[in-house]
Design goal:
The structure holds two protein chains of two kinds. Chain A is mainly β. In chain A, 0% of the residues lie in helices and 49% in strands. Chain A is built from no helices and eleven strands. Chain B is built from no helices and twelve strands. The N and C termini of chain B lie far apart (41 Å). The chains are: A mainly beta, B mainly beta.
Chain lengths: 116, 115
């Protein structure tokens, strides 16, 4: 069973640029969530994707967007990068059951984004 | 919105000593409760969780936590610290009954273990 993987591991961008981060879900999972972890902080929920649609969002501006593909992999896109976007971006996958029962989220190793 | 408070951003203990990491949540309805560990340059690993049933929960690596509704707390303990326990620990909650998989995290506690 393959765990959650993310690419790239590290990325350096300049202010104003755009970035795409990628995540492959754990086998059998149908939901992907993205979190931003700034230095010295706990992870903050960005959004969640289920059945290729965003079904929940945290307090992040629209320049943070995402996609989920039929194979349940996902992308996080950030436009017009700002210095404060420098953080570790974590992807987590889980199985959302028809009953809505919460199932454990499994986290990937993260992508470290540095904005200069 | 949920709020998770971890008292003490840094905790230092000697090897073999008791580890106690504190976590309090804000909601009036007890949420699902989790402790995660993060080693340098790695993602989050689940240590243990409380959803229902027995309030004392045992996890991996000898850690356990006790849910106390009256204190809105879920403190993490380990009787005897090991050097390999040095890492950052996060308490997290999930709104009971929510179909959105959103976790709310505390700011984390860095655990240092001295030889």
């Amino acid at each position: 069973e393959t765990g959650v993987t993310q690419s790239p591991t590290h990325l350096i961008k300049t202010r104003g640029q755009q970035v795409t981060l990628r995540c492959s879900s754990q086998s059998g999972h149908n939901t992907v969530s993205w979190y931003q972890q700034a230095l010295g902080q706990g992870p903050q929920f960005i959004f969640q994707y289920y059945r290729e649609e965003e079904n929940g969002r945290g307090n992040f501006p629209p320049r943070f967007s995402g996609l989920q593909f039929p194979n349940y992999s996902s992308e996080l896109n950030v436009n017009a990068l700002e210095l404060d976007d420098s953080a570790l971006y974590l992807c987590a996958s889980s199985l959302l059951s028809a009953s809505g029962i919460y199932n454990e989220q499994f986290f990937g190793p993260g992508t470290r984004l540095t904005v200069l | 919105a949920q709020s998770v408070t971890q008292l003490g951003s840094h905790v230092s203990v000697s090897e073999g000593a008791l580890v106690l990491l504190r976590c309090n949540y804000s909601s009036s309805v007890p949420p699902y409760l989790f402790w995660y560990v993060q080693y340098p340059n790695q993602g989050l690993q689940l240590l243990l969780k409380y959803t229902t049933g027995a309030t004392l929960v045992k996890g991996i690596n000898g850690f356990e936590a006790e849910f106390k509704k009256s204190e809105t707390s879920f403190h993490l303990t380990k009787p005897s610290a090991h050097m390999s326990d040095a890492a950052e620990y996060f308490c997290a909650v999930h709104d009971r009954g929510s179909t959105l998989g959103r976790l709310y995290f505390g700011r984390g506690t860095q655990l240092t273990v001295w030889p």
